[in-house]
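User: I'm putting together notes for a lab meeting next week and I want to include a structural view of one of the chains we've been expressing. I don't have a solved structure, so I'd like a prediction I can at least talk through. The sequence is below, exactly as it appears in our construct file.
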Amino acid sequence: MGVSCLHIVSIFSIFLVFSVPWAASHSLTDNFLNCLSYRQNPSYPINPAIYTPNDSSFSNVLNSYIRNRRFMTSTTPKPLVIITALHESHVQATVVCARYYSLELKTRSGGHDYEGQSYVSNNQFVLLDMFNLRCITFDHESETAWVQAGATLGELYHGIADNSKILAFPAGVCPTIGIGGHFSGGGYGNLMRKYGLSVDNIIDAHLVDVNGRILDRKSMGEDLFWAIRGGGGASFGVILQWRIKLVAVPETVTYFKVGRTIEEGATGIVHRWMHIAHNLPKELFIRVQPQVVPAGDHKTVNVSFIALYLGSAEQLLPLMERLFPELELRPKDCRETSWVESTLLWADFPSGTPVSTLLNRTVMPAYGKFKSDYVRKYITKKGLNQIWRKMIEVEKVIMQWNPYGEMMSQIPETATPFPHRSGVKFLIQYIVVWFEDGNEASEKYKGLVRSMYEFMTPFVTNLPRESFLNYRDLEIGNTTDAYRTYSGARVYGMKYFKDNFERLVRVKTAVDPGDFFRNLQSVPPDTWHLDTNNNKN
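Assistant: Thanks for the context. Below is the predicted structure for the 537-residue chain, given as structure tokens.
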């Protein structure tokens, strides 16, 4: 039986929490560094994990996990110190010292935060980088695993495949995403119609709280354990590791990706998909991805239908012929593979790519802006044609439509903070990526995705217009130190969490009433009601 890679040192934790630092030194940064040195566990020196702007490797360490070049400019605020934690005691010391000296703390696991909130702040801040804490330990008897927050999805998938051909885990399709933030925001992927979200399959966690204590599910209590599974862990503490329940998959799965343009009947096919995709067998997930492509002397929309089926092509083809004949799926379109090999195909690697590629953390960052929506009502063919015309107008925006149904409809909205369950037809992600430098280009491309998002208003949810926390978007509402109000936080809180927002506020008030763990879209404590700028609603 496997054991956790983290070793909770309870006596040291008590020492860490209640010790008082020595006299102040010359600067805030010096004070913070002296505090880290004083509070370190002698068995695990913290100095090798510390980087300051005076270190020649500081910029490389900072930039190595920035996945969006919007936050890699000369004007982007930089941390006073980076701590690349090598042991859980480094996380504890960082939390306690940052809080003592009123420094904002940013915690980064994979760097895929769409708005850079895990590594950027306009306040003086320190960056706690978790990439060294990436151990994954399997328990074969219980079919569970402990996964440290700094591991990537690719490392998790590779580790599962090394241990079993018939186990998997429901999570995202980008292998370089960090476990810590992905799971705490909900985590979804192409297994969700059968097994739900990542958070629906988490059974324990270790977290460092505002006092520097390491808590597990029992010691943190069910309210906090509920909150960190979909409510954003960064509002409540620092996630050290998750215990996950692995799920069963067949030895052979089937993948296909076929495209149809408007001229090839894409509108009718998408209209049919919209009516059946959430009702298909739970073993079948079909994503729709429309994007603009050249077609001779004009432009058109090509819609890709990208699927994972938990079974063989021989089983899939008659099912598709019976339930979705409009797509005209053929045997040559289907690729039978193992589950782990299918994760590479979903990440757009060519067929035959070695599974070891999942261990590669290198990403070529681009500029990007992303948004999300939920659809609960069918869109007519007329509406689809309007959408295609708008896409051709903005041209650079890609959409991904991800079907719900089955297990996603069976789990109550209140089971976790993630509320987008029963009644959802599909989730939309809006994507625009560019490579031109400069503010002019940035405003141009952000304007394109805003335009597409606004155009979609009649077709998506409203009151609130629901959004997905993992696809963070500061434009749907945010707070700043100058204007931090409960009513302001409620704007984005209701879009991400609906009525679960109020329970998240109660948990936040209980565990972090001083609002140490915060960002521009964090869950506020109830004390924000007292803000003189607040207009309750």
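A couple of points you could mention at the meeting. Residues 21 and 35 are 6 Å apart (CA to CA). Confidence is low (pLDDT under 50) at residues 6-25, 532-537.

User: Perfect, that's what I needed.
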